[in-house]
Amino acid sequence: MSELRPFHLAFPVRDIEEARRFYGEVLGCPEGRSDDTWVDFNLYGHQIVAHYKPPAGNGKDASAIHNPVDGHDVPVPHFGIVLAMNDWKQIRDRLIAAGIEFTIEPYIRFEGQPGEQATMFFLDPSGNALEFKAFQDLTQLFAK
């Protein structure tokens, strides 16, 4: 397998300044390039880009879509990052201190099974679901 490369993800937000505060100040992601309608952030070496998107007004609530995983309703879609366990604990504590409401509280998923991992889910101010996870043993990332 070749060297792991950074991923790029563009996602919609309702307000660029609100996204700057959440991703930059709450999550601690350094800001990169930006314009009036978008802003780049460095999410642990990966490029995520918040793009302003006006409300669709179609009455559909994307946050209402969930899939059951390990006894929890996981929001779909979602994105996030796989961290080292110490980094996961630090960001968990940072989110708690910032008063962020979790959609799935931090816990150990698949405990004692293949793929055991620490995970937590929360929403950004625009309602985008994020999952931050960590493995004690990274070889379990794709374990069956």
UniProtKB/TrEMBL annotation:
Pfam family, one: Glyoxalase
Descriptive protein name: Glyoxalase-like domain protein
UniProt cross-references to PROSITE patterns, sorted A to Z: VOC (PS51819)
Record PANTHER family: PTHR39434, VOC DOMAIN-CONTAINING PROTEIN (PTHR39434:SF1)
InterPro entries named in the record: Glyas_Bleomycin-R_OHBP_Dase (IPR029068), Glyas_Fos-R_dOase_dom (IPR004360), VOC_core (IPR037523)
Domain called VOC: residue spans: 5-135
